[in-house]
Structure formats: C-alpha cells, structure tokens
Amino acid sequence: MRTLLVAADPTLADFGKDPLWISIIKAAVIFIVLMLGVLFGVWFERKLISRMQNRYGPNRAGKFGLLQSVADGLKMGLKEDLMPRTVDKVIYFIAPVVLAVPAFLAFSVIPMGPMVSMFGVTTPLQLTDLPVAVLLVLAMASISVYGIVLAGWGSRSPYTILGGLRASAQVVSYEIAMGLSFVGVFLFAGTLSTSEIVSAQASGGTFPLGGLDIPMPSWYMILLIPSFLIYIVTMLGETNRVPFDLPEGEGELVGGFQTEYSNSLKFAVIMLAEYVNVFVVSAVSITLFMGGWRAPFPISMWDGANAGWWPLLWFFLKMVLVFSFFIWCRASLPRVRYDQLMALGWKILIPINLGWILLVATVRAMQMETVDKSLVLILAAIVLVGCITIWWRFDSVLQKRKEEKAAQVQAEFEHLEAEPTAGGFPVPPLDLPHYHGVERKEVPSGTN
After folding, report:
1. What residue ranges are annotated as transmembrane (predicted)?
2. How does pLDDT run across 361-371, given as a tens digit for each residue?
3. Which of 214, 236, 275, 417 is 20 to 30 A from 394, alpha carbon to alpha carbon?
4. How many domains does the chain contain in total?
C-alpha cells in the first residue's frame, strides 16, 4: 500500500467519491478489526482485572495467554446449540443479530484519520459521513436495545423478560441524558457531522471578554467538562456495563435476558455485540470530546503528527485508554440498585444537563455580534431563577414528606413496642404454664 502524507481534514464534500472497491476494503477492514478487537478486548479485560486483583489471569494458551480468547471463541462456535422447547424460535434466533448488526453499522461514521492516499486514491480514513452522523449513532444504539428486549421476550422465561424490561427502561433513561450531553458539542462545533466535529477541535478559538480575546481549549472534554462527565456515566448505562449491568444481574436474574442462551454461537454473538458497543461508545467519546484522531499535547507540536497514517496510532491509543476505564469501573465499583439507577438518570443527569445546556447556549449567544447581549443575560437570569425556585419548591415538598413518613414510622414503632400483638402477628404470652402439653417446671439455679 503506497502512502502519501496529506495534511488535510476531510469534509462532507470528500465523501461519496470513493470507488466501490475502496469502500469495500474500508468496510472489510473495519469488520475484521472489530472482530479481532473483541478477541483482544476479552483477553485484555481479564488480564488487567487479574492484575488489579493480584493474580495472573490467562497465562496458559499461547504467549501471555493471548490464544485463550481464540480457544473460547472456537469452543462456543463448535459447542452443541441447545434450545429450550418453549422459546419463540424466530425471535430467539433474530435477537442476537439485532444486537450485533447496529453496533457494526454505528462504527461506519467514526473518523479515524485525515485524508490519505490508499492504492493511489486520495480518501478519508472513514467509511462514510453524514450531516447528521451523530444522530445515526444514537439511532443504532436505540435499535440494538430491541435485541435485548427480543432476547428476553423470545426466551419465554420470567428472568429473561425482567432483564429485557430492565434494559428498555435503562436505555430510555440514559439515552435522553446521552443525547443532551451532545448538545453542547453541537452548539460549539456548529455541525452534527463527526468529521467536522473533529476539525472543529483543531483550534479552540477565543472568547471575547472585557475587550480581551481569551484563548479557549480545543478539546471539548476540557471546554465542556460537565457534558463529558455526564456522557461517561451514560455510556456505562448504555452498554449495560458495571455498575449499571442490571439487565443481566446474576444476583437476582440468573443471567438476565441471556439466561436461556446456552454457551454456544448465539451467546458468542451476544457477547460480541456487547464489546462492539463498548468500542462504539468509546470511539464516540474520542470523536466528540477528545479531539478525535488528533495527537495529544505535546505530540501535536510535531508538524507531521496529524498527517498521513499517524493519526490511526493516536486514535488506537485513546481507544485503549477509554476501554481501560471500562475495565477499571468493572473491577472497582459494585452494582447499583435498580431504583438508584433510574433516579440517577431522571433526577440527576437530565436536570443537570438541561441547566448546563442553558449556560452553553448563553455563552454561544454572547459570542455572536448581532445579538443583544444584555437581553440574553436577562433571559438567562429569569430562567435560572425560575429553575432554582422550582427546585426549592420540590425539595421542600420532598423534605416535608420525608419528615411525615419518619414521624409515622416512629409512631408505629412505639405502638408495636407497647403492644407486640398489634402488628398482626400472633405472639405467645410469656407466662404460658404448658408448652405442647408439657407442664412448665422451674429449674433450680446451679443445676445442669
């Protein structure tokens, strides 16, 4: 493959011009890399967690246990596929496919480098791009949850159905917060195209304040740190990873939506989809908040760092770091309760996101020369005071309800303490002369 350094950022006009065979090569490479990435990711996760827990991990099959994931994959592919008699066969077979296919499609709009020369054809290191590419990623994430719901429904088991219902409620809660965390990026980048969002992070620009032009950071993970932190939490909930792996909670649901899938090829496809989804949300975090394929400081000081094929290396290193964060969370955090999961999404992440979007929109409006800045500040202040008033009102009502409930519980406890039989449970009197027909006798003290 002949390589030519072309230091140019791709734009929407650069897509749709590749020959068909170039597009096929790109799609095949992405598919193969993701498949191999799953094998390496399973090994890397087991190895890193074992080191965190002061043990070796896989170290028998191949050098450093690298062939352990290959052996496990072959075992699941060749194992007898057992199917329960009560399942819906069509849905049972389709569910793993619905899980896996959208995950692969979402990776098609992830930019991994600038314009390069591939077999003499100048092309971007990205399969395709759209004016609404980020919305495509959100749509694919929404479709993949149908695979979990169908897997639980088609298995016809109480535990699997509960797992599917948990997944649907969890995705609805956390996708709203995830979509809101992208709004700040859209406001600053002025586009929903993934390649143009990366280009917008090449230079942070300046912010006018008091006649001075204050330089702004280029990466949105610094400039929009609340959006970045909220996205980090939501991507754990979106991929059903610890501490938000409620759809497959072993403690209460056996195996959740995948309980009836034996350790066979269909189970391998479900596991494959989970890891590819982790790669997708990691790549989205890199693209939207971490400068995409651009080199970090101080490597970016080198003139050729963001040209040619070097950006592939920076993108890969960032992927490894974000994936290591997933592993760190799994090794250190416990699973939360379901009510805590829903409360975090609806009562904390979404309100904070809405307030942050208001602040970001105000800052962007202040940067526009044709806008009356005093009017913008007055409207923002009115909305802010209104939000604080509503929050204080609801918080006061909630505190009053808690106090009333605590007083009620205390009164019930005192009533039960005075009259043990008031709780509805029969309590035998302490002075019974007989017990099961045996006369009660006093035992002299000091005897055995």
Report:
1. 20-44, 90-110, 130-153, 174-198, 218-237, 267-289, 309-329, 341-363, 375-394
2. 888 877 776 76
3. 236
4. 2
